[in-house]
Amino acid sequence: MLRMLRKYKVSLLVLALLAISLVWWNQSRGFDNTAMAGIPVYADVDESSVLESDSLSSKLEPSYSSYYAEQQKSGAADAADFDLRLPAAEYSAVSSEGTELLSDLGGKTEKVLAMNAEDSWVEYTFSVPSDGFYQMGMEYYNLPGKRSSIIRSLKVDGEYLFSQVKRMEFQRMWKESAEPWRDNQGNEFNPKREEVASWQYREFRDAEARTADPFRFHLSAGEHTLRLEAIREPAALSELRIVSPQTLPSYAEVKQEYAARGYQPVQDRIVKIQAETSSLRSDPTLKRIEDREPLTEPFDKDAIVLNSFGGVGWRTGGQWAEWNFEIPESGLYNIGIRFGQWFLNGIPVERRVMIDGEVPFQEMNALRFPYKAEWQVNKLGNEDGAYLFYLEQGRHTLRMEVQVSGVGPMIESVLNTTHKMSLLSREITQVTGTNPDPNGDWKLEQNIINLVPRLHLMARTLDDAVQAMYDFGVAEGSSELSTLYEARDRFLEMAADTTSIPARLQQFTDLQSSLGLWVNGLMKQSIVMDYIEVKSEDQAWPKDAAPWYTRAGTMSYDFLSSFTKDYSGIGNTYKDEKVLDVWISRGRDWAEIIKQMIDEDFTPNSGIKVNVNVIPTLPADQKQILLLANTAGLAPDVALGVEGEVPIDFAVRNSLVDLNDFADYKEVAGRFREGALIPYKYDNGDFALPENQNFSMLFYRKDIMEQLGIRDEDIPDTWQEVMDLIPVLQQNGMDFYYPHAANNTSLAINEFAPFLFQFGGDFYKNNGTQSGLDSPEALTAMKMWTGLFTNYKLQKQADFYNRFRSGEMPIGVADYSTYILLSTAAPELTGWWGMKPMPGIEQEDGRINRSTGGLAQTGIIFKDSDMKEESWEFLKWWTSADAQENFGSELESLLGVEARWNTANIEALKRLPWQQDDIDAILEQWDWFKEREVVLGGYYTTRYIANIWNEIVLNGKFPREAMEQGVREINKELNKKREEFGLKVPEASGAAGSGEGGQK
């Protein structure tokens, strides 16, 4: 027994040593701080010289930090004693459309200039007395629009001085429309946020808050012209200001001023401001959230209480929130904030703090909130103690704005590196091609200028960024820095052995993607706040977090309560009364918004009470649950979020209401594109309404196309133009992208559909009883589709998003999800990419047929419902333009642009906050929207479209032979399924499926 115990102890010791070794190895891997020791400094190499081959560098504006540094090198300094106000109505030139002069707006008696349309502009002429840096700003009034922030660009003497002035952001203001409301289970919900229209002044600043101070513009003595251009959203302009740069005093200077004025600390005073009671905020996404830490105020162990503010929604540069508070006695106060910052591992985040509209001293311009995995109290101060703030008796405001300036230089360094990687990647693929032989001798150092110095310089840039992050206050060993270490070491490895680079092209692309995601993550600087405390020095600071045993007790109580709570219901639930039962196959956040809209809008106006339940979102689980519920007689009245191919499965079983039974169906159907309703038709009936709608578009890199000499107006409109472009791309080491999901055969039908529809073909004939793929149009379409991969050698599988970012695939066809990815997760490409309708086939009348579909999700009514009329009223309300716009706005308010609702309602789509160029392109594509029929046995069409592609592209079979074989098999399955459901099988459905008949 003793021997066994000793063995057990030895085994434990070995395991412990192994675990420690693994932890050490993981932590130390790539974290060699001496890695750069032997790397040359390249003092004799001008870094810009390694980018001589980048013709784009001369066409793009520098970043603000590069512009400012260059001007300082030239000896520029701040101008002094200058303050110029330019009334908006006294312009020197203005666009003839989209602008108007208004009077008596927001309490202003003088005339102001409204810029209502995108691309409208106004110019002002002014003079400055001396060379130097000047700051600018404008007073503006938010006019009714699409709820997005206002975007303006600025040209000085006809030029954008730096890239950030092409997109300056001016926030709207929002407040809660009422107090939070509670459902009949006691849970608290956010009220709606409504816009506040008022005049605001804001300096011209970085929209992403990567610099702490307003922009400094270098102006020479004499006359200048400013042009302000409207990029997004209408707003009125009262005046422009051009002033000498203002320097904030330090706290030490402010403290001396306090002493000189005789200000004294107050005694025995505490003013507590609950963070969730914010009076104004810049963004409707900023809202109350729940926290279950026992010390968070207020706390309710039995229900959801929205007792804190911010969280993941309060993270983007420039977002601000404001609180009102009353000071009982004039004097000096401390300020503390109870907060949680567990979002960026080991990295502090920043906020700009303003009191009564002014930053009190320099240290408040970028106040740091350190990382910790639990609640903390930020005692606003430094190593010498808490700061003192002088506050007069009476009402005050405190505003906190997301600031990213502390990590701004590091973000810029990494973005510059990703740009250099993109250029270098293109140069490498020009030598090696996109699929190089890893064993070939490509002589990269001879073919690419300064290859090794460029790799070393990129590695040094990332190493410097790491050191700067540590200086900023990042905790040693933070996992957030592993991406930089990894990329740095890979650059060093490539420089040490350039022959390994061809085999590392995918790794190179992955690194670029990782660095882009790192930047995107670092720029999202979230905190959650419980309260702000303004107190006298003699009062104790509040506790930061509850003891571990208190938190453990709360967690245990929550765990035990979870066995008795009903989590399927959302909001108010009704029992023992006539109520409409709605099941929603979406996330809980989505369902909560819908339920709130129902309780605030639909139920009060219709008198129809609604219970909402959430069901799984995976198509297979969703279909199974609905089928089982229908079989058991437990189906809901209405189901939302139903996948587009499901309604016909229920319709053929006589389980759904034919919407033609309602007199106003045709009127309601007019809300959507006619082609969007095709999949929901069966036996002369219509069995669903589309909720949202996918769509494919042509995405392209403006910068790379310009490098290739392809202007924006020359981007391909037809497939013939695409085929003319492909050789040009491939000669430059790049490629065109057309989607092919090799591991998902169900998507092949969507990839083939555009070609089939654009040539005038269809998947089925004779009322969906036979395959239509035996037509000449189908054969022509198949030849063109497969020819892209056989004749033009497009890659059969590729990650378009990452290759688009790297520049390997600077143009291609992709769906709506790519738009969201590029908008939210590719900050380095902002302004460098565009979107147009997908290519098509030119018709005899000169029009280009761009037909394609985008099957998405639907709403259905079950036949067993005893509330059919009420269900129809609900479905009409839900698919209306007002409800869809409201839902889309609330969803984007909650989750950001990555959750933008791609509604199927045409009018609602126009109202959502798309940029005008983007919505114009989408609507042009929607003019050709056509979806395929969904028929019994249609899954065989999906399967055999994939098989036909494989036979032609992979096995070299002739297209006609592959098509004929596929049509025979498809027709067999269509007949089999019709027999199974007792439907008439068409006569003479022959080998090629050419029979007639097919009445259902």
Please describe the topology of this protein.
Layout: H1 2-28, H2 64-73, E1 83-87, E2 93-94, E3 99-102, E4 112-115, E5 121-128, E6 132-142, E7 150-156, E8 168-170, E9 173-176, E10 181-182, E11 188-189, E12 193-196, E13 199-203, E14 217-219, E15 222-232, E16 235-243, H3 251-261, E17 270-274, E18 280-281, E19 288-289, E20 308-311, E21 320-327, E22 331-341, E23 349-355, E24 367-369, E25 372-379, E26 381-382, E27 385-386, E28 389-391, E29 394-403, H4 408-432, H5 444-447, H6 451-472, H7 482-496, H8 505-522, E30 527-535, H9 548-561, E31 569-570, E32 580-584, H10 588-606, E33 610-614, H11 619-631, E34 638-643, H12 646-651, H13 665-669, E35 681-682, E36 685-686, E37 689-690, E38 696-701, H14 702-707, H15 719-731, E39 736-737, H16 748-758, E40 764-765, E41 770-771, H17 776-790, H18 800-806, E42 811-815, H19 816-825, E43 833-837, E44 841-842, E45 848-849, E46 857-861, H20 868-878, H21 881-895, H22 906-911, H23 916-926, H24 939-954, H25 959-980
Parallel strand pairs: 32-33, 32-34, 39-42
Antiparallel strand pairs: 1-16, 2-5, 3-4, 4-16, 5-15, 6-13, 6-14, 6-16, 7-8, 7-15, 9-12, 10-11, 17-30, 18-21, 19-20, 20-30, 21-29, 22-25, 22-28, 22-30, 23-24, 23-29, 26-27, 31-33, 34-46, 35-36, 37-46, 38-42, 38-43, 40-41, 44-45
Helix pairs in contact: 4-6, 4-8, 6-7, 7-8, 8-18, 10-21, 16-17, 24-25
